[in-house]
Amino acid sequence: KFGRRFPKGSKPSLEEIVSICKNLGLDPEELRDKQYPRSRKIKGIIVVRKVQSKRNTLKLIFDALKKERK
Questions:
Q1: Which of 13, 14, 27, 63 has the highest CB neighbour number within 10 Å of its CB?
Q2: What is the C-alpha to C-alpha distance for residues 57 and 63, in angstroms, rounded to an integer?
Q3: Which H helix or E strand runs over 1?
Q4: Are 32 and 44 in contact (CB under 8 A)?
Q5: Around Cβ 48, how many Cβ atoms within 10 Å?
Q6: Model pLDDT for residues 5-41, shown as the tens digit of each residue
């Protein structure tokens, strides 16, 4: 049911996550040349300023994503 960091069905794009992080004031840094080692399909990572624990920061981003999509 769950993907690597977000629920599987959500599939947000890199640009979508970057714009949400900017709106939340997390100072995102997009690194398109990086990739997940086990899969060549997953490319790009986003580094953000950590304001809380990693889990809480991810929840904050995902909640903002859900609000944006509704």
A1: 14
A2: 10
A3: none
A4: yes
A5: 20
A6: 777 777 888 899 999 999 999 999 998 888 777 777 7
**DSSP bridge pairs for 2:** 7
Distances (CA, A) of 25 to 42, 54, 60, 61: 25, 15, 11, 11
Tell whether the model's pLDDT for residue 68 goes beyond 80.
yes
Q: Which of 10, 31, 45 is nearest to 59 (CA)?
A: 10
pTM value is 0.78
Residues 69 and 10: their CA atoms lie apart, in Å, by 10
Distance CA 30, CA 18 (A): 7
CA dist., res. 65 & res. 19, Å (int): 10
